[in-house]
Specification:
The protein is an alpha+beta fold. The protein contains three helices and four strands. A hairpin with a 4-residue loop joins strand 3 and strand 4. It starts with a helix and ends in an 8-residue tail after the last strand. The mean pLDDT is 80.
């Protein structure tokens, strides 16, 4: 009779205390899973924002790198025949510091159809506030959407190996281009750099 009583107690199921402990443990586990899902959901857009910022930086860097890098500003009458920067008209030497728009190119703008940027150095200090008319490229397309800002810095900097047979490209004939794109209200950024050598100093657009 005692044996049957013990068997019935074992088959009776969970006690109230065991049930309470079970509910508490499951609740803690579910809360942990939900918190992870909440963080994932809030940050799920971040990779897309970063990908867009990278695309903007790549496009702008490529645009600057494909510009001419000549002895003289391309608008200079001596640009196509100059043998050095000394042959340029006053104020149009592309090697003169600070880099930027030359004396005869004060009205140049990136998106202008009449007087667009025509040399790598023109982009030094150039900034774009995404989503406004100033972010449009030469074709009038807004290349930087709202929520993103971009800036370009161009500086003379030698690069390449030193010594013979591969001498280093001197600073006067080499430019480092740095493109910075900020997003997420300026809290995040992408920085890309590239170099441009003066391999065709008389090749004007």
């Amino acid at each position: 009779m005692c044996t049957d009583s013990r068997s019935l107690r074992r088959m009776a199921g969970l006690t109230l205390i065991e049930l309470v402990f079970f509910i508490v443990i499951v609740s803690v586990a579910v809360a942990g899973v939900l918190s992870v899902l909440n963080v994932t959901a809030r940050r799920s857009a971040d990779p897309q924002l970063r990908k867009q910022a990278i695309a903007i930086a790549e496009a702008l860097l490529e645009e600057v790198e494909t510009m001419p890098f000549t002895y003289c500003d391309p608008d200079d009458p001596n640009a196509g025949t100059a043998n050095s920067s000394d042959d340029c008209s006053a104020g149009n030497n592309e090697a003169s510091l600070p880099l930027g728009a030359q004396a005869n190119a004060a009205s140049e703008m990136r998106g202008s159809l009449d007087t667009p940027f025509d040399n790598v150095a023109d982009y030094n200090g150039f900034t774009i506030q995404g989503g406004n008319a100033g972010s449009a490229d030469i074709g009038g397309v807004v290349s930087v959407p709202a929520g993103y800002n971009a800036s370009v810095a161009v500086a003379q900097e030698a690069f390449g190996p030193t010594g013979v047979p591969s001498p280093q490209v001197p600073a006067v004939a080499a430019l480092r281009i740095t493109v910075t794109v900020t997003y997420n209200g300026g809290s995040d950024s992408i920085v890309m750099e590239g170099y441009r050598a003066q391999y065709a100093p008389r090749a004007t657009p």
